[in-house]
Amino acid sequence: MHRKRILLQSLLILLAVWGVVAAVRSYAGSKRITAEKVAAEVNSAAFEDWSQGPGSAATGKQREEKLREIAGLVNRLDFNERERNREDRSVERMFRLLSTDEKKLFIDLTVRESMGKFMEALDALPPAERKKFVEKGLEEIRSGRTEEEMARAEELGDDLLETIAGEGMRAYFEKANADTKLDLAPLMESMNEVMQGLRGQQFGPGAQ
Questions:
Q1: Which of 67-71, 113-117, 166-170, 178-182 comes out lowest in average pLDDT?
Q2: Which of 8, 19, 92, 125 has a CB 3.0–4.6 Å from the CB of 129, allowing a cystine?
């Protein structure tokens, strides 16, 4: 049971790393948000490195306003633009410059709020489309890209991974229907192979 829980936690973290969590949210308004728009906003923000500790309160307020603006743009990306944003990695580079509190805020704005919507969106997909989603995930696992992404996710730290996994677990059990859980099973099984190369089959929050 404990092993199954770790597999599920790892899968949910992986979904967040893939970027599909925020991507399931429909972008609002008439103006389409692109990966280039997000990258431009990130670059213009020019965040200083606060990863080792925050700066002044006044600067912190300005950073929070900009961070909320960028999070709003990220949440409005559609699937294709979210994938392009993932390849660009501008948001990931920005994230590494944030303070601990800023990282928690950004995850809250872009992941926690969206986990339930993500599960609901999977439920709403036609079975054939859900199968394509799973097949894409399996292909990334086979290509070796998933192991790289999971290793990068681990760098976020246990607290942030715990937040992502916790919200994902809640959404999985409360929102996903039986068909969705069944369709996700192959991804959970394939995660076992990935985990064999990461921390001796123990990856993610609560791993011993």
A1: 113-117
A2: 125
